[in-house]
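Recap from last week: sequence in, structure out.
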Amino acid sequence: MLCIFIVMKKQYIFLFFLFLAIFPYCYLCFFANPSSDDFGFSFQSQTNEFWYLIKQTYLYWNGRYVSNVFIYLNPIVFGSFFGYKIIPLLMIILFVFANFIFVSQIFHTKTKQNKLLISLLLSLLFLQNMPIISEGIYWYTGSVIYTLGLIVFLFYVALLIKVIRENKKRVYALFLITLLFFVCGFNEVLTLLVVFFLVILSYIFYKKELQGKKIIIIQFLFSVLFAAIVILSPGNGLRGEAYPDAHNFSHSFLYSVMQVGRFSFLWIVSIPLVLASFIYFQINKKMRDENSLFQNSFYMNRWFSLLILFAIIFICVFPPYWATGILGQHRTLNVAYFFFIITWFVNLTVWYIIMKTSCDLSFLRK
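Predicted structure tokens:
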């Protein structure tokens, strides 16, 4: 009993310091002020009919049918600069909560304290190392296009895991498709990554004959439909015409590969990710005894999982190069980094089991 009490006490102390670490990010929200596109979209919202703007933006600028709604609902449209400062705070709270829901489904056998601890670590890792936090959290337009999309995506994945594990496909089928519709409507890179991962899941579930393969395949088919609505929108075509260096494949491919090398190196050697990897080593050892997903290395081999890790960055940088000829802003890399974190820990699980198996075989041979 004394040992259990000591372990619980350590958990609460650790949780306290994690909450303390997230406080500065919340405090900085009150220094956020409108800038750049905030003013342009707000002016248009004040001088035009709302649904007319949504239609015109889709037809003449981009296909983001969900985030286009939010960009015209900026708090400064209603004269509230304090509301503008509250939005980043709400974004951080929602992000932590979404991570908790996601982690609760992955680590469903763990206690609430452990789930909260893991979700806070994941949230802090993202906040501390995201390529451009100013545009990801503290700038309204950037946050509702990219970070809010990640939040909705986390809720979607959590529900998808729950449906598959508990075999509740009839109860949540329509809700899953609705959530997927919203996820795909935020931005192009998130949409492409969703399609990419659903392709991989469809392949794994079909090949391994896993429970829920029909659900995954249906989700993939709908993701392709929703991606088409975004990517093939008239606005995307017209927007590309404004950039003379667009649609140069060799240039886009070469520079995308270089950016993959650049960002993967920066993220892998970052101290926060290295420290989190050591912490995850202990978590992973325990999860192997409790969760079949961890026991089976997420049903992937090491080279396939490693390829996915680098493919994430390529998927997020190639579209901007193809559409404009330049990488431009790093808001899209914020999305890439979050997916990179998740896939990094999946890779640690895969490689840890392979290394442990190799060590065990070497010991037996001796």
